[in-house]
Write the structure tokens for this entry.
Amino acid sequence: MENAEKIQRSTNKLKTRLELNDEKIHKENQKVSLITDKTELDELAELEQQTVELKAKVKYNLRHLRKPFYKMLGLTRRSQVALPPDETRKLKQYMSNPFEALVSEEHGHPILKRILQKLDDLIRRGRLKLKTTRLKKAQEQMDGILNKNSLFNLHQDCLAVLSKKRQLSASQTVTSTQRELNKLQETIQNLQDQKESLSSKRKTLGEKHQRVLRKIQIQKEELEKSVFELIDKRIQVVLAKVKDVSTTSPQY
């Protein structure tokens, strides 16, 4: 049982280390609270939420153009339509990430408009075909963007939010907080790794302890049987109780 006791001592040491690490995390959280300007962080969180909402709006306002864009890109890949490299890249970006595509455009989103003008020409000349209902909806969105500037306000809102996010993200307070959070995440990950290691050791220890108990019980029964056969008298071997470390769970 010496090995089991040795493992238990190691378990207790690891438990102490975990408690010290938990205390360290608590102190790091206190330090973050002291240096954090909550107003700036709240504003950054609000901007993040606005960004999510704007991404959904951009996607919605371009939803009927996704299929035409896909067909147009197919024509360029088959060399049936010639697009300048910048327009080809932007066309792919509007399909994969419409928000990033729009916010990376200059004022008035000229590349998108050039793409839409060429798309409209392909449709009119019958080189890009769509089902009637899909075609009607696509033409309505193209007309809104090209002739009614339907994306103007949305584009401005996206640029404004992105600009504020960049300013806040570059501020000393937010930068300092991000560094502290990264340190905390590393500490927490290390703690989690140690907990997993401890759990594995405890499981192995419990299994070993049960094997030892079973072996002792067999030896006890054999000893009692041998004594009975020798002196024709039944005896009962009483063993000192050993702490079952497998049921002792460290508290975190």
The radius of gyration is 35 Å. The chain has two domains: 2-35+173-243, 38-170. Residues 2-35+173-243 form one domain.
